[in-house]
Amino acid sequence: MKIKIKDLELEIPILNASGPRCTTEKDLLDLEDSLSGAVVSKSCTLEKREGNKGKRYWDCETLSINSMGLPNLGFEFYGEMSKKVKKSYIISVGGLSLEDNVTILNHFLTLEKKVGIELNLSCPNVIGKGQLAYDFDCLEGYLTEIFQRVNISKFLAFGIKLPPYFELTHYVGVYMKISKFPIDFITCINSVGNGLVIDYEREKPVIEPKNGIGGLGGSIIKPVGLSNVYNFKKLFPKMDIIGCGGIETGKDVFEYFLAGASAVQIGTQFHKEGTGCFKRIYEEFLEIMKSKNYKSLSDIKTIP
Ligand code: DHB
């Protein structure tokens, strides 16, 4: 069940989310060998980073919280990996400044193999840095510079990863800031930022960095993800939206398609289950398609 977003071909519309299990060479090659429709990298920065210190990921059945702090091997490593990744490769770019992102993106344009880009505008966990996508005053100027200084159209596809929004006016606010740019896809949502999970027995937060504050994932965030996909699809009917947030089963994938997604990404469940999740979830999704007698993705009509 192939799909294409601009020139980016996905064998199946179910991919890994940037974040879990996509930092090292082994991680990326395991994804290459999995059924994931593409290999999506960890968000990369100019310099290699260790990330935040101490216990920085925790999950239970319905919920995950992380404050990883952008540990990654540096952008050059993720560029080099384009030689080893044979299927579609989407590099998540999470530089700490505009200058860094311009440098990183221009470097990725020099790679022999063309790649897709997901520009992360929504990392909640870097100490001392807010999420750009919540700063409506900066967003437009930021993207203007990126599009002026990088030949974005040369990527297989260029997308942005957004955080969740909770107010209907905010969707319109984002729309006003980004609709003038030729963006090929929006990935939403990133984790629900700045949550706090406390263990009452230990009388401590379950993770250590930032006094326990971190990004939430897992099935509890699915309604937020669905609403963000739905609301952005209404505003951008022609835009490909990659849905993310709380997907554990084929049924969840189907729900995201009903909300308007063209493809989906799996984060927390991939962290828990490993690369086998893609095959399992895809098979569950195909079962649902069969039970409804739907032959292709275009048979799934977005809810009104
Ligand atoms: C990290 C978390 C994110 O949600 C993100 O988008 C990028 C990086 C992190 O803490 O590593």
SSE blueprint and pairings:
Blueprint: E1 3-5, E2 8-10, E3 14-16, H1 25-32, E4 39-40, E5 57-59, E6 64-66, H2 75-80, E7 89-93, H3 98-109, E8 116-120, H4 136-149, E9 158-162, H5 168-178, E10 185-188, E11 192-196, E12 198-199, E13 204-205, E14 213-217, H6 222-235, E15 240-244, H7 250-259, E16 263-266, H8 268-273, H9 276-291
Parallel strand pairs: 3-16, 4-7, 7-8, 8-9, 9-10, 10-15, 15-16
Antiparallel strand pairs: 1-2, 5-6, 6-14, 11-14, 12-13
Helix pairs in contact: 3-4, 4-5, 5-6, 6-7, 7-9
The structure holds 3,4-dihydroxybenzoic acid.
Give the gist of this structure.
The chain has 304 residues and is α/β, with parallel strands linked by helices. The protein is built from nine helices and 16 strands.
Descriptive overview:
With about 300 residues, this protein is an alpha/beta fold. It has nine helices and 16 strands. The protein has helices spanning about 25-30, 75-80, 100-110, 135-150, 170-180, 220-235, 250-260, 270-275, 275-290; strands at about 5, 10, 15, 40, 55-60, 65, 90-95, 115-120, 160, 185-190, 190-195, 200, 205, 215, 240-245, 265. The strands form four sheets. Strands 3-16-15-10-9-8-7-4 form an eight-stranded parallel beta sheet. Strands 5-6-14-11 form a four-stranded antiparallel beta sheet, with no helix packed on it. Strand 8, helix 4 and strand 9 (about 160) form a beta-alpha-beta unit. Helix 7 crosses helix 9 (about 275-290). The longest helix is centred in the C-terminal third of the chain and has 16 residues, at about 275-290. Bound molecules: 3,4-dihydroxybenzoic acid. 3,4-dihydroxybenzoic acid binds next to loops.
